């Protein structure tokens, strides 16, 4: 069977306690030296006996170097802890300030909108009225500035358009003047001979024949043909019959 766990407690026998202290101290120093060699660690060991005698071990040549390093390390950790606490305290304070400011701004916004006015005193209402009047004056000033800038811009555009209109009107007048001075040249720019176009067109006089004259002429022609072809038997209607038919 294995050895059971021994309960650790103070040795009441003084001699046994002194012997155990000497043995365990030597074993503790040996273990400290082994861990410093095997693990390349800096080890410092300080022991005070019941009589106040000092026993020490150091893996370095001097124990003071390890103790200084220990003090620096503990001091740095303490400062970091303090700074962390201060930082947390500062953050808490900053959060409280920002939260209070946000609540005040929300209250002011509601008051500007005409809400929650019952809890305000006369002086607070007067201050609120003055703030609103000041804000309205600033808004009107900015509005008038924008309106004046817009009017100036429109006037500038109107002047530009008027100048363009005047230029176009001048060009139109010059064109009309050229057409008035040289109408034919402007109308026929290729130098055509226009004498024939200016002369009046000749009028054709058509003979007006009446029905009687036409028939009379035809009778004369038929009489001539009758004299020429006397020997032949004519089948043409005699002139006197034609004359009666015309009437």
Please specify the SSE layout and strand pairing:
Blueprint (H helix, E strand, L loop, with lengths): L13 H26 L4 E5 L5 E5 L4 H50 L9 H60 L1 H5 L7 H4 L12 H18 L10 H8 L1
Antiparallel strand pairs: 1-2
Main location: nucleus
Keywords: DNA-binding, Nucleus, Transcription, Transcription regulation
GO cellular component, one term: nucleus
Fold and architecture overview:
The structure is a single chain. This protein has about 250 residues and is mainly alpha-helical. Among the domains are: about 15-60, 3-Layer(aba) Sandwich (SRF-like), CATH 3.40.1810; about 60-115; about 120-175. Helix content is about 70%, strand content about 5%. It has seven helices and two strands, in the order αββαααααα. Strands 1-2 form a two-stranded antiparallel ribbon. Residues about 190-215 have low confidence and may be disordered.
List keywords for this structure.
247 residues; mainly alpha; SRF-like; two-stranded antiparallel sheet; 69% helix; nucleus; TF_MADSbox_sf; TF_MADSbox
What series of H and E elements makes up the topology? HEEHHHHHH
* Helical percentage: 55-70%
Radius of gyration: 69 Å
Number of strands: 2
- Order of the strands making up the biggest sheet: 1-2
Q: What does the main sheet amount to?
A: 2 strands, antiparallel
Question: How far is the N terminus from the C terminus?
Answer: 180 Å
Strand content: under 5%
**Number of helical segments with 4 or more residues:** 7
């Amino acid at each position: 069977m294995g050895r059971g766990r021994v309960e650790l407690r103070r040795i009441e026998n003084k001699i046994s306690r002194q012997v155990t202290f000497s043995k365990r101290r030597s074993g503790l120093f040996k273990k400290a030296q082994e861990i410093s060699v095997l693990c390349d660690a800096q080890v410092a060991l300080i022991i005070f006996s019941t009589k106040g005698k000092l026993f020490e071990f150091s893996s370095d040549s001097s124990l003071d170097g390890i103790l200084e390093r220990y003090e620096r390390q503990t001091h740095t950790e303490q400062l970091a802890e303090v700074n962390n606490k201060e930082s947390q305290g500062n953050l808490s304070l900053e959060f409280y300030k920002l939260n209070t400011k946000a609540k005040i701004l929300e209250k002011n916004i509601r008051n500007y909108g005409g809400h929650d006015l019952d809890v305000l005193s006369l002086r607070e209402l007067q201050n609120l009225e003055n703030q609103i009047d000041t804000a309205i004056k600033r808004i009107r000033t900015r509005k008038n500035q924008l309106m004046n800038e817009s009017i100036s811009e429109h006037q500038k555009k109107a002047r530009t358009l008027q100048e363009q209109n005047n230029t176009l009107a001048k060009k139109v007048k010059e064109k009309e003047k050229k057409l008035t001075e040289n109408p034919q040249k402007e109308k026929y720019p290729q130098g055509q001979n226009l004498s024939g176009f200016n002369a009046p067109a000749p009028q054709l006089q058509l003979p007006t024949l009446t029905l009687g004259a036409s028939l009379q002429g035809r009778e004369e022609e038929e009489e001539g043909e009758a004299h020429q072809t006397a020997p032949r038997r004519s089948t043409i209607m005699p002139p006197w019959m034609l004359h009666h038919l015309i009437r």
